[in-house]
Design goal:
45% of the residues lie in helices and 15% in strands. It is an alpha/beta fold. The strands form two sheets. It has a five-stranded parallel sheet, with helices on both faces. The protein has a three-stranded antiparallel sheet with strand order 6-5-7. A hairpin with a 5-residue loop joins β5 and β6. The longest helix is centred in the last third of the chain and has 22 residues. Bound molecules: adenosine monophosphate.
């Protein structure tokens, strides 16, 4: 993605909140962390936070491990409490990118009042759309650095250091929930909850971007979408 630079961005002075929606494997994490660097705003991944919490040897950690292992969604109250506490603590006054939140209408309602509370603007919603075959292909090839969490893909984004992270040399491993059975359940969960969520945001600043493409092509569309005025819908470019 080196060819796109911060020069492409406009209106950087205003706080912005970007929500990355999309099925597991649609590239939310990759695009979110790239956008985070481009816009200079933090990125919060609820999946990452929950995976960290799940490693704790507490009753909540144990319960989370069980839920994540099946690919089911974690209950709304718990996820909202985690996101609420984090944003109230960090008060991201220049805005932020949320990767994987909200995933239900209840979470979206919670987020609306949280953003208002923090004096942040209504979000720009990016919906990464991808075919089922594309998702399975991507998830099977996804690898993550065991140390810093950077995401690679054996096919679309291999590490220049082979099975080691380019940043810190950490081992690249497959996520526990990237096995086929769990992937299928995660997709079912996504399909069950995504339609009402998209309906909720359709009248807002909502952009659907086709994600079955090269990461640079997707990134280019994201920048266009994010520089455009509210209520503009980006048409799929594939
Ligand atoms: P992700 O890394 O975004 O694919 O999320 C991994 C897993 O974390 C999901 O399969 C869910 O079990 C859980 N998770 C992440 N974000 C949420 C959310 N907003 N609501 C409920 N569960 C979530």
């Amino acid at each position: 993605m080196a060819m796109l630079t911060a020069n492409h961005l406009s209106d950087q002075s205003r706080a912005r909140v970007i929500l990355m929606l999309g099925a597991p494997g649609s590239g939310k994490g990759t695009q979110s962390s790239w956008l985070s660097k481009q816009f200079g705003i933090p990125c919060l991944s609820t999946g990452e936070i929950l995976r960290t919490e799940a490693k704790r040897n507490t009753p909540a950690g144990f319960r989370l491990r069980q839920i994540l292992a099946t690919g089911a969604l974690v209950d709304d109250d718990m996820v909202c409490a985690v996101v609420g506490a984090r944003l109230q603590r960090e008060k991201p006054e220049n805005g932020l990118i949320l990767d994987g939140f909200p995933r239900t209408v209840q979470q979206a309602c919670f987020l609306d009042s949280l953003l208002a509370d923090l004096g942040l603007p209504r979000p720009t919603v990016i919906d990464l759309e991808i075919s089922k075959e594309g998702l399975l292909r991507r998830l099977a090839g996804r690898r993550q650095c065991a140390v810093c969490g950077s995401v690679y893909n054996l096919i679309s984004r291999p590490s220049r250091r082979g099975s080691r992270c380019e940043t810190d040399g950490g081992a690249l491993v497959q996520r526990d929930d990237d096995t086929e059975g769990v992937i299928l359940h995660r997709m079912e969960e996504y399909e069950a909850f995504s339609a009402p969520l998209i309906d909720y945001y359709k009248t807002a600043n909502y952009h659907r971007v086709t994600a079955d493409r090269d990461v640079n092509a997707i990134a280019k569309d994201l920048l266009s979408a994010l520089s455009m005025p509210a209520r503009f819908t980006l048409s799929s470019a594939a």
